[in-house]
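User:
Hi there, any thoughts?
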Amino acid sequence: MGEKTVCEEHYGSESLQQRYTRLDNGTIVKRAVGGQRFSSLVQFFRSVFLPQGYPESVSKDYLSYQIWDTLQAFCSSITGTLATQAVLKGVGVGDENATAAAATITWLLKDGFGKVARILFAWIKGTSLDCDAKRWRLFADILNDFCIFLELVAPVFPLFFTGIVCVAGVGKAIVCVSGCATRAALTMHQARRDNMADVTSKDGSQETLVNLMALFAGLVVTPMVADNPMLTWFLFFVFTCLHLFANYNAVTCVVMETLNQSRLHILVSHYLRTGVVLNPAQANVQEPVVFAQKKATRIKLGSPMSSIIQRAPDLDRAIHSNSEGRYLLGMPTLTDINIVLHQESSHLDFIKSCFQAEIIDYVIEHRFSKLQVHSSIPCYDNEAHSLISSDKAFQSMVEQANHKALWELVDSSHEVSAQVFPSFHAGLAHAGWTTHRTQLGPDEWRASWDIHGLSDKKSY
């Protein structure tokens, strides 16, 4: 009969393969094809430092992000070493006149202010860290470099040393909260097989290796800069520039498929101009990572009813504008758009309500310039019961905005949104966007409403 191959298997997408052969005597023999799992140094480091199943188990931007993140971590460790040396010198290490008690008090004050800052920052900004993970990630690293600068400067001003290091401690506490929280959000994005723990642990291994390399580099650098301020500042400047460059490239290479306010603003603006929904890679390139998205209005999702309703007629207008939806939209001023969510609203309602708000924002932003709306955008005139040109429909909204006819503007935007949103939503799915969850950052207010009075049965 001869030998017959009865089974072949491979380990993930690696080159490791095994073949099972049945011999004439009936036994099964296993033979390796392409070498053993740990036969090469590359395979060994891959299994130690990369998540199991890489690259299929992580997002496509994983490797590029980790490379830039590794570079920035190394640079940050080197500048951190320089700062530690400066702070130790400032508290009196090597000074015969310094006391341990004074150094301890300085350190306790620095840590104490930092702990309070961590609590306050997490309370004030905790929710927005998920929604704008890339921007807050970069903010954390910029702030970290500024804090290291303060620690390097502190020994030059001995009278203000304690105050300066306390300010640096507050900043580093904010860096810790912002950096750790946004890292968790990015890990959730990277993990594609519900393997957050594996991705997190391997990221920790990579960071530990980088810090170990930076430790050895620090052992070489420290004696060189001990009595050389010029070299200290030169190294700080070089490694800080590299740190910021690496961080910027790290956050800009991330391609998030979920919608936040910035990405939705980019998508809607482009869709109204061209009739095309950008894919995640195209939209993420345009997302600002240094400053907040510049918009003509402030959109608040999940506002209380009092933010749009002051009198009974206001409630009538709000419900009339969206009688069948699970949200109400109102504009107390021309630059504020508040969205009240129904208690049964879903992520689709979040997207739909913000889509209508973005239409209003687009009109207000371009009301003093030529308003460009693609001809494929369908618009219907309820009064004339016929289709009208998109330019005419949007120009009508411009006139309402100019005359500050806010409820009329809300009514018109709802009519346009009801006609345009289905095709936009279909375009999101076709382009590869995730719509079953969002990062639009709604507040927790939810409401039920009925113009005729609420009964036991909830209605909207």
The CA atoms of residues 78 and 214 lie 6 Å apart. DSSP finds 13 helices and ten strands in the chain. The chain has a mean pLDDT of 88.
